[in-house]
TrEMBL record:
S-adenosyl-L-methionine listed as a keyword: no
InterPro entries: ATG101
Taxonomy, superkingdom: Eukaryota
Cross-referenced Pfam families: ATG101
Region feature Disordered, mapped onto this chain: 79-120
Compositional bias (Gly residues): 91-104, 111-120
Biased composition (Basic and acidic residues): 79-90
UniProt xrefs under PANTHER family: AUTOPHAGY-RELATED PROTEIN 101 (PTHR13292:SF0)
Family per record: Belongs to the ATG101 family.
Protein name (database record): Autophagy-related protein 101
Organism: Parachaetomium inaequale
Phylogenetic classification of the source organism: Eukaryota, Fungi, Dikarya, Ascomycota, Pezizomycotina
Recorded GO MF terms: protein kinase binding
């Protein structure tokens, strides 16, 4: 049996508090659309001017809505907490425009004690049922992950109309790039997909986990394969070094 680690694809989402729910939901539905192997009549929804496909299955829609709501609650809690800036963010790097960076960090008194933006992540795991074997008998089924997609979410908290316009443009660009990256990865990496033995229902169970920035919601050690490098990978180090505004060309 092939014991290679399941590939994990890393995507990014960037939005303001008003649009983060729709952006993350749209990305998750795109992933399900790309990895849903049952007969389905896809529909589309508009997210930041993009028509994104989604799978109109009640079970998927309910789970996506529940997990996205949990992520939004986590992000809201983080946004309203006072943050102590790490040493590498003191001075020129800054945390202006929420998490976007650029400029001198505002004091808690000037922001009402709020922490500006927030970061989190949400992961979809696709599973395969395998018979559990022992030396003396077959003992039920194990659900083994064969692929996962982690969406790293950053929320900016713009304070002026000019900042809101810049964040909106950056959000649209990031969403477009993320969707294109997801389509490219899904089409380029198919050899690891387990055999499909049924045609009248979705052959693979799935899970959605909500985790904090830098954590692995599934409980194990999180690794980013080489395939995830490019537009989205390495974002954490770049963001820490330069701030989101600088890295995304907002300023």
């Amino acid at each position: 049996m092939d014991q290679r680690a399941a590939p994990e694809f890393i995507l990014e989402a960037f939005a303001d508090p008003n649009s983060v729910r729709d952006v993350v939901r749209g990305i998750l539905h795109t992933i399900f659309f790309l990895r849903f192997f049952s007969t389905v009549h896809p529909q589309t929804r508009d997210v930041l001017g993009l028509e994104l496909a989604y799978v109109p299955e009640a079970e998927i829609e309910t789970l996506v809505d529940q997990r996205v709501a949990a992520l939004v609650r986590q992000l809201e809690a983080e946004r309203h907490q006072p943050h102590t800036l790490p040493d590498h963010n003191r001075g020129g790097g800054g945390m202006g425009l929420g998490l976007l960076g650029g400029g001198t960090p505002p004091s808690n008194s000037s922001t009402g004690g709020g922490g500006g933006g927030g970061r989190g992540q949400i992961t979809i795991q696709f599973l395969e049922k395998r018979r559990r074997k022992t030396w003396y008998a077959m003992r039920g089924d194990d659900e083994v992950c064969w692929e996962s997609w982690t969406v790293k979410v950053t929320v900016a908290d713009p304070r002026t109309e000019g900042e809101r316009a810049k964040v909106r443009r950056a959000s649209e660009t990031t969403l477009h790039n993320t969707i294109m990256k997801a389509v490219t990865l899904a089409n380029a990496h198919k050899d690891h997909i387990p055999p499909i033995t049924v045609s009248d229902s979705n052959p693979f169970p799935y899970q959605i986990h909500v985790g904090g920035s830098g954590s692995n919601p599934s409980g194990g050690q999180q690794k980013e394969p080489a395939v995830a490098a490019g537009a989205g990978a390495g974002a954490g180090a770049a963001a820490a070094a330069t701030g989101w505004a600088t890295r995304m060309g907002i300023y």
